Amino acid sequence: MTDSERIPLHFSSQSDIDEIEDLLHISVEPVRQAADAGKPPSPPRATIPVFSSPPPPPPPLRSVEASTSGASSSAGGLIGFGPAHTTLTEPVWATLKRDLLQVVSNLRIVVFPNPYRKDAGRALRDWDLWGPFFFIIFLAFILSYNASADRPKVFAVVFAVLSAGAIVLTLNVVLLGGSIIFLQSLSVLGYCLFPLAIGASVCMAKDDKIFRSIVVLATVTWSSWAVYPFVSTAVPPSRKALAVYPVLLLYVSMGFLVLANN
After folding, report:
1. Closest CA to 235 of 244, 245, 222
2. pTM of the predicted model, to two decimals?
């Protein structure tokens, strides 16, 4: 049916519809008011404060960033935005420079007077074996160079005695109840050969028995003084002599080899 075909309502019909709507509104209004009166009062609405100045910025998340970076580094670089630090891709010169600086630092801690010797158990934390290996090779080379004959054999004997002696003495310290790590103790014993290596080099310059005796005595005393706090504090006090005496005997034997070498 189109709009033209629709039949408009009569005026009386429209007035009847309005009256019905008024009656419905009058009958429903009291019920609505009674229902509204029985409801509990609604809680007050939260208001949003209005600041005259902008709010202060949040504190920096340094601790979160630090913990995140630590977790990423401990997880091998799996968490984070950058690759983990590795020494496999660094230049060879950077590796040699870092190892050389570590050897110099450890040599200064072990051999020379410094405040770290008061806590010998924690002084040499970043131990290494490059320094001890170099000093053993150097001392064996000096003693074999001055040998009159069969230099390779002298070099092999000195190298074997120093290497095996350091390992046996380190095992002795560990078996006596030492609190020091095996390789750390081996590193300390090797670094303490530095004074003997210096003494052997000085004895090459002058073939005087008195001069050589003074140099050897001074270097053996220096090596013994350097190794004593590390070995003595690593074992119980009742076993200190059992740990220190074999080490001093090794250095005295090396001193006699330097003195007898012509």
Report:
1. 244
2. 0.61
